[in-house]
Amino acid sequence: MASSSRLGDLFGGSERGNGRWPLVAARMSTSGELAGFTGLAVPAFLAEIMPAVEIGWRLGRAFWGRGLATEAAEAVVSHARAELGLRRLVSIHVVGNEASARVMVKLGMSLERETVQPDTCRQVLVYAMDL
Q1: Cα(6)–Cα(63) distance, rounded to whole angstroms?
Q2: Predicted confidence (pLDDT) per residue in 13-42, tens digit
Q3: If DSSP states are collapsed to H, E and C, what string results for the chain?
Q4: What's the mean pLDDT in 60-78?
Q5: Which one, 8, 10, 36, 108, has the greatest CB density within 10 A?
């Protein structure tokens, strides 16, 4: 995984408003294999929590259960606080994905609300944290 000191070298993404939203590719340091990504986005699909910035992650199944999502997300949280000056982050937990919810709690997030995602009709839990 990338260290937070190298995080800036990995940022990609597109311009959003006045800042650059990071999307970080997570590669295994030993093999260079792509494990997944973590990043920030505006969750416009869930209007009831706007304005907001969401942190999210996706890892290939072979990389689950190793703490990689937490490690990458901690680096992005640090960047969001120190470099982007964000004051708050949310994360949207699709009910049933308990591993993702555990990452949210490890980051220091707390359950803020239960709702339904309008475009999919899936139950979701919104976690949030002040930075």
Answers
A1: 21
A2: 333 333 445 566 666 667 767 788 888 989
A3: CCCHHHHHHHEECCEECCEECCEEEEECCCCCCEEEEEEEECCCCCHHHCCCCEEEEEECHHHCCCCHHHHHHHHHHHHHHHCCCCCEEEEEEECCCHHHHHHHHHCCCEEEEEEEECCCCEEEEEEEEEC
A4: 89
A5: 36
